[in-house]
């Protein structure tokens, strides 16, 4: 059967043309029920018959099927994910709406449908001759779709009853009007809450009910927050420039503050106070009303991280945080405004812990997210006694005006609080790191074993197996993605080669393996495990440039003179045979041992000498040498818990490898941009706005140094000149503060920006990319493909040359990079320990000192006073000088202190690392030193003085290698909450 619609359209030129749309209807679409005899026996029979009723409901004693409307799927997907719900009909109408409204929910729904044990059946109602309906004149699309679902439910009941099959088909909807119309037509209909409450042995599902669709208690109370503007009001406000749109960023240091990043304004817009925050959650796209300049304020100097443990009720009792900033000079105030509407929510599922109600039988509790930037969430649960010892996942449903906190529902439990595997799972989920096992489809694209290099491969590649090539990496490296060589040429110049694992040979465009690698974007490292971007067969075996193994590589070869000036550059795919896989220390010992003069050692010495000259040339051009405290964890080989920490040692060989990786990346960037000016994948580091440097300038000035930030070169000179003989660690701390002022380096597509915007501020180079780590970064794989096409070693494909698709890919890569920069589990190390450590003050706040512990690369807060507490010692805060004073004792940035570190486990739901002052001694505030009960461990400034930590590419997530396991210990690399960086380009 065929139906058609005709309508007329007018072109821009004034011509009228007729459009006819045809819609085909069929009479052979089956219902999917095993009980049905009319549709015939087909493979698609999914719904069980009356002898296998599935879920048991007190509302429906007979066997039954469920028909779901769109909002049920969108809002209650966590309920649908439970195995107890089966025999479910998903009409095509519902499926199409879900696909258009939420890709995440659609993906989850398809996974459920594809599970044969769940008995979910897609009914193609839009092409069934008895269930397809036309949209009535004046009828909105939502009403038409609701009517279509009522028709589907009615047809199923009629279809089965005519065959005398005792199965009821029930419409599940939370739409009051739809439910009312269905009842008038005699169609069985329930809301999701009614159905869940009727199920036997399914009380746990009640916790998972989304509250978005139900009338909430307390709606009649006076609202606490202003009403959000409607979409049309927001649109008109943005069009008239009375409103500004941007992304809301919640503060980690003060839950009553946040900022909005707007493209149209150079500075962030400051938001202060709950009413001005107006229910925005970190990541939301919001509409902001900018205050007049006389109402501008400055970020609070008060650190407010934790709210009251008990639920204070629906009241706003915040202190007037604006008042404390009125004394700040106008020149230091920042644009300030308030959020008046939400353009797009960016809610997700959140990990955290349950904070039980103080009332014994109360089912309403607070959920405390692991991410400090997310507010507490009110949920309802009858399982509080069980869940209070678990890490759990909660989804936010709504945030009514009358509620102090958003409302949500329990999704699932992850495991016991404090368990290492559970805490790792929290880290991965909170930072949206894909970590499921590789699917069979992905694994099917791996090469078949045994894998060997064939004669055809040799003919298509340059054979470099005769060269003295070696790799230099951290100890225990298994994913070796680069190797080096250097030899003297007959003309007296030197040949230098960087050889990178040819991962793109094994990962072909468009395959499931390629799509999975693009989605993961990078390898992520935890304390004792690695979440690979590609399967281990590639990452640790076939792609890894292991010694004594023939491997495919992508080589970059330079001819240079003895002053490191480049004469020629060449790229080609090759076959290499690495002579040795050296650690940084092993390579350094070879270089330093004058008795060793074999070809490999000579190669390393030449590379090291050239690297020093390359580095000097870079620094002379204004490249920055910044700092980030890096540490190395030792992990027990059996329990995998951290048992010791030591500061990272940096050798000349670290810098040697860095310099040649930098040079390779720059050389490749120039080559691919020349061949593909519109679609090259590059990496830029934007110059920070001058306002970002204010904390650095103030910190330097307080110590008697003027930091010039007018250019990268001036900044580099100022930082190197700021040295203190009495505090060797001072310069490193200053560089750490400078690192905080930087923007984030990002991937971009060349055709989307003007060439001056390609500049990499940290490296002081006009063009840069990532080529040298394809095992752990997907961006490098794309660059390999571009380079291969540019030298004729491979064929191109449409997506590679599509700058819009490349731009979208860059967006995902940058997002995954940001998410990979998470903190590590220091709580596991400090359990049952109380330690004294030397630290340095990084920032002075109104109520606290922020302390850096160099040994651990750890920052923490030492509170001088807390909200609601009467301090025994009153400190005087000077906002102008950024100092705290008590009598003759003054705390300034970069001053050294001694603190006690311990883990507060009094509340198992929320373990906290506590900082207490030991020295200088302040009676009534400092704690006494007890040498018998405290484990002490000093920190040597010598490590920092002799081996400065260099950060070449700002804010780039680092690489960590697996570590060889000594007896009972397994050292793991970290970098201030991140993995030890093999190379920072």
From TrEMBL:
Keyword Protein biosynthesis set for record: no
Superkingdom classification of source: Eukaryota
Keyword Hydrolase part of the UniProt annotation: yes
Residue ranges occupied by any RNB domain in the UniProt entry: 461-793
Name of the protein in question: Protein DIS3 homolog
Signal peptide range in chain numbering: none
GO biological process: CUT catabolic process; nuclear mRNA surveillance of mRNA 3'-end processing; rRNA catabolic process; rRNA processing
Annotated region (Disordered), positions in chain: 954-985
Lineage: Eukaryota, Metazoa, Ecdysozoa, Arthropoda, Hexapoda
SMART domains in the cross-refs: PINc, RNB
Domain PIN: 64-180
Annotated coiled-coil segments of the chain: 577-617
Subcellular location(s) of the protein: Cytoplasm; Nucleus, Nucleolus
CDD domains: PIN_Rrp44-like
Cofactors demanded by this protein: Mg(2+)
Biased composition (Basic residues): 976-985
Keywords annotated in UniProt: Coiled coil, Cytoplasm, Endonuclease, Exonuclease, Exosome, Hydrolase, Nuclease, Nucleus, RNA-binding, rRNA processing
GO CC list: cytoplasmic exosome (RNase complex); nuclear exosome (RNase complex); nucleolus
MF GO annotations: 3'-5'-RNA exonuclease activity; endonuclease activity; RNA binding
Short name of one Pfam family: PIN_4
Main location: cytoplasm
Biased composition, class Polar residues, residue ranges: 963-972
Family: Belongs to the RNR ribonuclease family.
